[in-house]
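quick one before i forget lol
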Amino acid sequence: MSERLALVTGTSTGIGAAVAKELLSRGWQVVGVARRQARFSGNYQHLALDLSDVAGATKAIERQLGARVAESGWQRIGLVNNAAIGLSGRVQNLDAQELSRSFELNAVMPLWLMGFVVKRAKAPVRVVNISSGAALRAFPGLAAYCASKAALRMAGMSVAAEVEKNLHILSYEPGVVDTEMQLATRSKSLEEFPWGETFRRYHAEGRLVRPERPAADIVEFLESDDAERFSERRLQT
């Protein structure tokens, strides 16, 4: 089943790493994109890129992956937009450059990557955009994250409405997952991020989800033959 190719962002840790590992175990060829190196057994290629550097990342991806995605031998191509930054802080304290970086990583590059794959793929395409409750609900201290995740959700809906053939998109909310982003969020002061107390309680009570659980749902969708053009799902706990 090596005729299946997946592009997964943020494969150095967390959900991205778990998705890459699961796909490789199922015989997929995987291209991972992350700033830090990631190594897996199997047919894995790593691109060490900072996706918030839009100009540099897009040029590198086009140069290194454009021809590969366009090959006619693929049976399916998957894209998992997982990489994100959870910039926390009250709106009056947000730095403009960090705010721009948040949107570039959380929304701009995922939307560009959807277009990049759709433009070249000759096989059916499955896209999973990692969403969040923050895409639907306002959290004090998370204005940048909420806004950029809401933008990604709408981007997926718009792409699905625009591209009518051989494309299915899932906006997937993994719940509260035990990742580096979650650790960083818990470390913020309650003054900056009032919701931190809830996440600290989840951690203390052992209620954080292991990355392998959402990874299984994501891979199931990538391999599915029956899917709506656009759908939304949350990890069932």
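fyi The mean pLDDT is 89.
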